[in-house]
TrEMBL record:
<dbReference type="GO" id="GO:0008253">
    <property type="term" value="F:5'-nucleotidase activity"/>
</dbReference>
<dbReference type="Pfam" id="PF06189">
    <property type="entry name" value="5-nucleotidase"/>
</dbReference>
<dbReference type="GO" id="GO:0000166">
    <property type="term" value="F:nucleotide binding"/>
</dbReference>
<dbReference type="GO" id="GO:0000287">
    <property type="term" value="F:magnesium ion binding"/>
</dbReference>
<protein>
    <submittedName>
        <fullName>5'-nucleotidase</fullName>
    </submittedName>
</protein>
<dbReference type="GO" id="GO:0005737">
    <property type="term" value="C:cytoplasm"/>
</dbReference>
<dbReference type="InterPro" id="IPR010394">
    <property type="entry name" value="5-nucleotidase"/>
</dbReference>
<dbReference type="GO" id="GO:0009117">
    <property type="term" value="P:nucleotide metabolic process"/>
</dbReference>
Length: 337
């Protein structure tokens, strides 16, 4: 895990991305340089610290600190959030104001920060800033840094970040069965309701049933849905997509929607994204089928869903994050027809 950054394989069927330059005429170039996409990530989400975390849980903070200090010069392995962070940072142009910033957030003490930054340097990640809180909750520092997306392994910090106005997700383990994907490209996949979109349609289903939900969605197909917890992040990611968009309508940033909705409830999804000006490169309306095979075929570098069962299934094949939702995580939000 401590070796050089992995090289990816380019499929003969994949479009060439190496030549993609920044579209300097895109208005979002200046917008993102003034206010970049900011990702906050915990050390345990960025790096593989599971062994150290077990020591912390079973033996306490002193044993944990001793282990970290003893391993200060040992490069950390890659965690669940490593690949998407690495790929997003690679979109920045050398010597220019970045489009993407990543801030490291850790409950470690400042004295234990050296190992993390040495590992960052070893992997040549462009992460220069961070907060180390000596056990204090990270949640207050998410809005303080102006973070758009926060990734962590801790429920409390994720929920606190959501309360602070950021998109946030709790990451699972590093997937063991990964497809290699095109170098120079980042693929982000989202669930729809209660993630990108608001939970209002779900409320119709809960209160009135499936037939009423379908009738509601058909009747409101032309009415854009409200933004959900990841709506603002999607807008900013879409702006980054447009910065690299070519005349052939291909970008280094690829956005996908993987949702349990199916026809006829699909139309409102498409029309909402159109109204928002945030078109998806791919949409998969899977109904009652498992999302994992679709996500594996897609080669997502991260997937966000508010249902625990979908996250657990997806996490076997792609990095996946659980988004806190307003409902029972065991119950389907939008059932298949």
């Amino acid at each position: 895990m401590a070796g050089p950054v992995d090289q990816t394989t380019v499929s003969a069927a994949s479009p060439p991305h190496g030549h993609m330059a920044v579209n300097e005429s895109c208005p979002y170039v200046s917008t993102l340089r003034e206010n970049p996409l900011r990702i906050g990530i915990s050390t345990r989400a960025l790096f593989d610290l599971e062994e150290e975390h077990r020591v912390f849980k079973t033996e306490g903070v002193k044993a944990y600190a001793s282990m970290q200090l003893a391993r200060e010069d040992t490069v950390l392995g890659k965690g669940t959030g490593f690949e998407v962070v690495e790929r997003l940072l690679a979109l920045n142009q050398p010597g220019k104001v970045p489009f993407v910033e990543v801030i490291l957030l850790s409950q470690n003490s400042p004295d234990l920060s050296l190992r993390a930054f040495k590992s960052i340097d070893r992997y040549k990640l462009g992460i220069k800033t961070g907060s180390f809180t000596s056990g204090r909750s990270l949640a207050p520092f998410v809005p303080a840094w102006g973070i758009d997306l926060f990734l962590s392994n801790e429920d409390a910090d994720v929920k606190g970040a959501v309360e602070g106005g950021a998109a946030a997700a709790r990451l699972g383990n590093v997937p063991k069965d990964r497809n290699e994907t095109l170098a120079g490209e980042v693929r982000v996949a989202f669930d729809g309701d209660a993630v990108v979109f608001g939970p209002e349609s779900d409320a119709v289903y809960k209160e009135q049933g499936l037939d009423a939900f379908l009738a509601h969605e058909v009747a409101n197909a032309d009415n854009p849905m409200a933004r959900g917890p990841f709506g603002n992040f999607l807008h900013k990611l879409s702006a980054l997509r447009q910065v690299y968009l070519t005349d052939a309508d291909v970008s280094k940033v690829r956005i996908a929607l993987v949702t349990a909705r199916n026809a006829p409830a699909h139309e409102r999804v498409v029309r909402t994204l159109r109204a928002w000006g945030t078109p998806a490169d791919e949409a998969h309306f899977v109904g009652s089928r498992s999302k994992a095979p679709i996500l594996r075929a897609l080669g997502a570098h991260i997937f966000f869903d508010d249902q625990e069962k979908h996250v657990l299934g997806a996490a076997t094949v792609v990095p996946a994050g659980h988004v806190p939702g307003p409902h029972d995580p065991a119950m389907p939000v939008i059932p298949a027809n």
